[in-house]
Design a protein that fits this description.
Helix content: under 10%
Distance between the termini: 81 Å
Strand content: 35-45%
Shape: elongated
Length: about 450
């Protein structure tokens, strides 16, 4: 009986604690942290230095707005969670900062979960604090923001984590730096429509977990664009560059575009898992080789599809310094990485992929087809001195090596000197990329000059 009364007492205390949490009334009000600091019970207090301390959870109801004012500094306490079921207007004119209140604090961050509740993030730095987003009819826009040192307490899936399927999301011009887990992610059952464009991803997944820096699910009728990004790894042995999957075998009519990205020093470059309809084009992948066991990864591009239902178009990629160039571990996905015989055909692909020094165990592997499907791979430049059939055969593993594997059709190869070529030696320390006019740009494009190992490379 004493145990029963003790349980009731604990339950009563818990209910009382929940009852103390501030919840806005949903009448269309716009709340700032300054206005919240003037409302009793919100847990928001104005500090002497002008910052706002958030010491307990609170909720902004559907219909209401939480706004970050210009130059706000928000300090969140340990385990504090701010739930927004309405809109998040986090777009100060110049800047705002959200961080933790002490070195031993691990805030749970922002949970933006409202149906038809949108989030507009601009000019904000988020330190040690993540965002969980998702609701039917909702969308998130992030522009010119920095997400750094996310503690992983708000979600197991990134500094920005989508926990529900939603469309019309855009993340651009942002920096993701040294976050504990991956930078952007979503659940296996929560495909999202999103544009991830012109961002810098630097040394994310510092916990060295089996998570790529960009970790997305692609299915349904949502299109996904991952374009013009720099994805720079910390040489972690478990964290890859870009990973997009459909591990649950969800139906899909949408398309995935991974284009014009610069990806370096990750466990692997790009991987797709499951049934995906993808275009992988004009990416530069260098030294994505930090897998300790070549049997488990280290590919510039890996296509894993046991369902044999993927459609993958691969064109114009530079692949250098991986343990493998392109790998197909299993299945028979439809892979077109060069089909040049009929320029008028619907499936024409000029190829234009270039392989440089990809291999392990003293053996070069430009393309390893361990699956059972035929791969078209014409019009490419292989890592051999002479682009003839006998030479190229040495860097491709397929039906010729094992009759149970699929065939790779790789002739004709690309004519020498007509693709990506080294144009001059140069001393270059700033890591910038240049277009054909010599103007700096963040990432290489289909036509331009980029610098690698002190040498200028022309992409025609």
């Amino acid at each position: 009986m004493k145990k029963f009364y003790s349980f009731l007492l604990i339950a009563a205390v818990a209910v009382g604690a929940m009852a103390d949490e501030f919840i806005s009334d949903g009448s269309g009000n716009v709340y700032t942290f300054n206005s919240l600091s003037q409302i009793e019970g919100t847990g928001v207090t104005l500090q002497e230095d002008g910052s706002y301390l958030v010491s307990q959870n609170f909720t902004i109801a559907e219909g209401d707005v939480l706004q970050l004012a210009n130059n706000d500094v928000i300090k969140m306490g340990n385990s504090v969670q701010i739930t927004i079921n309405g809109d998040a207007d986090f777009a100060p004119a110049d800047t705002a900062v959200v961080t933790r209140d002490a070195e031993d604090s691990n805030p749970k961050g922002f949970w933006m979960l409202g149906e038809n509740g949108n989030a507009n993030l601009k000019n904000v730095t988020f330190e040690y604090v993540g965002i969980v987003f998702g609701g039917v009819g909702s969308s998130l826009t992030a522009d010119n923001c920095t997400f750094t040192l996310h503690n992983g307490k708000s979600s197991s899936s990134g500094a920005i984590s989508f926990n529900a399927s939603c469309d019309n999301n855009v993340i651009e011009n942002c920096y993701f730096i040294e976050n504990t887990l991956n930078a952007i992610g979503c659940g296996a059952t929560n495909p999202v429509g999103i544009i991830i464009r012109n961002n810098v991803f630097w040394h994310n997944t510092t916990d060295n977990r089996n998570k790529p820096q960009i970790n997305m699910t692609c299915a349904g009728d949502y299109d996904m664009h991952i374009v013009d990004n720099q994805v720079i790894g910390g040489q972690f042995t478990l964290s890859g560059g870009i990973g997009v999957s459909n591990m649950m075998g969800l139906a899909h009519t949408g398309k995935l575009y991974i284009e014009n990205n610069y990806i370096t020093e990750n466990r692997y470059g790009i991987t797709t898992i499951g049934s995906v309809d993808a275009v992988i084009k004009n990416n530069v992948m260098v030294d994505n080789c930090y897998e300790t066991n070549a049997n488990n990864g280290g590919s510039c591009i890996s296509i894993y599809d046991s369902s044999s239902s993927s459609n993958i178009y691969i064109e114009g990629n530079w692949m250098e310094g991986g343990l493998w160039g392109i790998t197909v571990p299993t299945g028979a996905p439809n892979i077109n990485m060069g089909k040049v015989e009929d320029p008028t055909a619907e499936d024409f692909n000029p190829g234009n992929n270039t392989f440089v020094d990809n291999g392990n165990g003293g053996v070069l592997y430009d393309l390893f087809n361990n699956g059972t499907g035929t791969i078209w791979a014409q019009g490419n430049t292989w890592n051999v001195a002479v682009q003839d059939e006998a030479s190229i055969e040495e860097v491709i593993y397929h039906q010729v090596d094992d009759p149970t594997k699929g065939l790779v059709i790789f002739m004709p190869a690309k004519s020498p000197g007509s693709g990506i070529e080294e144009i001059e030696a140069a001393q270059q320390a700033d890591g910038l990329y240049y277009n054909l006019q010599g103007m700096p740009m963040q990432t290489p494009h289909a036509a331009g000059i980029y610098i690698h190992n002190g040498k200028k490379i022309l992409v025609k």
